[in-house]
Design brief:
By secondary structure, this protein is mainly alpha-helical. It contains 5 helices and no strands. Helices cover 83% and strands 0% of the residues.
């Protein structure tokens, strides 16, 4: 039903990118910060900080975007800003590292909730909404697995993040 709809595929790719970003952070952030000289406790706390701000994004972005039915610009902003935030982890000094992690969490949460909001804004039948959600999550898991696999290969090949 959704396989031939380019807009649904774009939404699935956005959802997959956001969740791959989350999985990447969970898998590699502690290793990355340990390589920067952080202790295990401090590295683990970053995941907690990211999760707290992720909840802020999950709950806050739908409220901010609720004044317009077309939330695609909000979603584009949330996806696009992820590139900047991930670059901030690499390029910015460690003194603002926690800020970048918090911003990544907020952006990831915003992408997650906006993807579902955009999908469900255009469906009135609960049966279709369930089917679309299942489709999005199925494609999401495939995209996430592929991205993490190649990220792991790249990390192993280069020896660096």
């Amino acid at each position: 039903m959704f396989f031939s709809n380019p807009r649904v595929w774009l939404l699935a790719v956005c959802f997959g990118q956001a969740n791959a970003g989350y999985a990447f952070m969970i898998a590699f952030l502690p290793i990355y910060t340990r390589g920067l000289g952080w202790n295990a406790g401090s590295s683990g706390k970053l995941i907690g900080i990211m999760t707290i701000f992720q909840m802020i994004g999950v709950l806050g972005m739908p409220v901010l975007s609720s004044t317009r039915l077309d939330r695609s610009l909000w979603l584009l902003f949330a996806v696009g800003i992820q590139v900047v935030r991930f670059a901030g982890l690499i390029l910015m000094p460690a003194s603002v590292f926690v800020l970048w992690v918090a911003m990544i969490g907020c952006g990831l949460g915003a992408c997650f909730s906006l993807t579902f909001a955009v999908a469900l804004d255009h469906l009135t039948a609960p049966r279709l909404a369930r089917a679309l959600t299942a489709f999005l999550q199925g494609i999401d898991f495939i995209i996430t697995a592929i991205i993490l696999y190649f990220a792991g290969l790249l990390r192993e090949w280069s020896g660096s993040f």
